[in-house]
Amino acid sequence: MKSLITVFIAFIAFSFQGNAQQEMLLLTPNGKVVIGDTSLINIVGNYSLYVQNGVLTERVKVALRSESQWSDHAFNSTPTLKQVEDKITSDSHLPGMPSAGELVKEGYEMIYMDAKLLAQIEWLWQHTIAIKKENDLLKKELQELKAAVAELSNNK
Known about the structure:
The protein has 4 helices and 3 strands. The chain is mainly alpha-helical. The model has no long low-confidence stretch (mean pLDDT about 80). The protein has 2 domains: about 1-55, no CATH class; about 70-155, no CATH class. The longest helix has about 45 residues, at about 110-155.
């Protein structure tokens, strides 16, 4: 197994060249890996891997270094329906979510988008629970009113 790894590392070190003599796989001296047309790719930031045409995989796991990277903030600040409606009307997206333009310009980190999406789901559940409680109360009041009307009708 060790010799197979050595061969693979040597293969990467020399980088694979496609038919057009362009580098298709590159391991840079600073530890960054580029897969695809390396003449078109420049890895910026603290990222270590770039795959030009995407990645197909069966699983992805994001590891957190600490709980501070994840926030249960949905329960701390929940917008009202009016605030959600106003945000959608004015900005064409939900409160706390990036706009399409921001996503195109900046992209997004999965861990932060997952947290934002979870916050939206938690808000929807809170809203659903509130609607259920209100609905139950209205049903009870309706039953009481029906009973009062029936009693009045019987007394005539």
